[in-house]
Design goal:
Strand order of the largest sheet: 3-2-1-4-5-6-11
Low-confidence stretches: none
Strand content: 15-25%
Number of strands: 13
Distance between the termini: 51 Å
CATH superfamily of the largest domain: NAD(P)-binding Rossmann-like Domain
Helix content: 25-40%
Radius of gyration: 19 Å
Largest sheet: 7 strands, parallel
Structural class: alpha/beta
CATH class of the largest domain: Alpha Beta
Bound molecules: NADP nicotinamide-adenine-dinucleotide phosphate
Shape: globular
CATH topology of the largest domain: Rossmann fold
Length: 299
């Protein structure tokens, strides 16, 4: 069985990926503060900020591919904690890139739509990044470290993820669903756009990049719909039978946050759609599937 190293297996994406790939590959997964147990997956605590130990980790596992999802992924945390963000998101990535290159392992790095300033939207791979948040900067610098130090890589810039996770860090969809089921109002931004991506579709793409040995380079992956959180929340209400009136309009300028938010980071996914065989779910399709077992809204 081929061996795959997943960094951040206790995270939203890493956990979904490990659960999906564990029957096909021998999976080794790193976590830090949250020990997770996934049957059939070897998980262990490892601090990727401790660069000196990364080479030993990679040499011990000697994987066919490394999927690097671990990151400080909260933009507001990164805006306040520059050193931690740079140490993990950029320099940890650099060390992994060097090791992957030495071992001949394929490195798949999950980057973000936050590398763009969001002034235009519909960003393709040829568009120049111009991050406005520290998180976006550290992730973009991570991309540069990879191109500088590793020749066999996929950099996958993804849109905002939603779906079911391990429960460790509920994502925005799970939080909205919980609040809606309690009958609470859902204040959501109307003038900030994303191509929200169902986590299952991100997993689908990454598993094809692992299997497709010849596939490498930079790819964008967003969901098929460009939408605001307001529009997303209205669709969620429809999926669970809650009244759309629960969703309240908020403007981006009304929300105080440590990190600036790009107004339109929607991604153009034409390149990846040509390279892979993907069936991407619209928000409505994905929510109907995800909320199939959710109790119907009852006031
Ligand atoms: N979620 C999104 O909407 C989104 C959108 C675009 C791009 N991305 C990118 O996709 C990737 C996955 O995102 P996600 O939402 O799954 O992230 P997440 O849920 O926040 O998980 C982050 C993971 O990183 C681990 N980690 C944190 N600090 C670490 C350290 N010093 N050493 C080792 N591991 C450490 C965490 O471990 P513990 O929990 O055990 O501490 C956790 O497993 C990230 O690279 C992110 O930048 C995410």
């Amino acid at each position: 069985m081929e061996k795959i190293l997943i960094t951040g297996v206790s995270g939203f994406l890493g956990w979904n990926l490990a659960c999906r790939l564990k029957d096909q590959y021998r999976i080794y997964g790193t976590c830090l503060d949250h020990q997770v147990s996934i049957p059939g997956v070897e998980t262990f605590a490892f601090d990727l900020s401790d660069w000196a130990k990364i080479a030993r980790l990679c040499e011990t596992v000697d994987p066919t591919a490394i999927v690097h999802t671990a990151a400080y992924s909260n933009p507001d945390f990164c805006e306040i904690h520059h050193k931690e963000a740079l140490t993990l998101n950029t320099f940890g990535t650099r060390e992994l890139a060097k090791c992957a290159n030495r071992l001949g392992s394929k490195l798949i790095y999950t980057s973000t739509d936050f590398v763009f300033d969001g002034k235009r939207g519909d960003y393709g791979e040829a568009d120049d990044p111009a991050p406005i948040s520290y998180y976006g900067k550290t992730k973009f610098l991570g991309e540069l470290e990879i191109t500088n130090h590793c020749s066999y890589y996929v950099t996958l810039r993804i849109g905002t993820l939603y779906g079911r996770g391990s429960g460790i860090r509920p994502n925005f969809f799970e939080k909205l669903e919980q609040e809606a089921l309690l009958g609470k109002k859902l204040p959501c931004i109307v003038d900030q756009y994303r191509t929200f991506l169902c986590v299952e579709d991100a997993v689908q793409a990454i598993s094809q990049f692992i299997a497709g040995k010849a596939l490498k380079g930079l790819f964008h992956l967003g969901g098929p719909d460009r939408a605001s959180r307001f529009e997303f929340a209205e669709k969620l209400c429809a999926a669970i039978g809650a009244p759309a009136g629960l969703v309240e309009r908020v403007r981006l300028s009304d929300v105080a946050s440590a990190a600036p938010r790009p107004p339109d980071c929607s991604l153009n996914s034409n390149k990846i759609k040509k390279a892979l065989e993907l069936k991407l779910s619209s928000i409505t399709e994905a929510l109907d599937r995800l909320c199939g077992a959710t109790p119907r809204w009852a006031p």
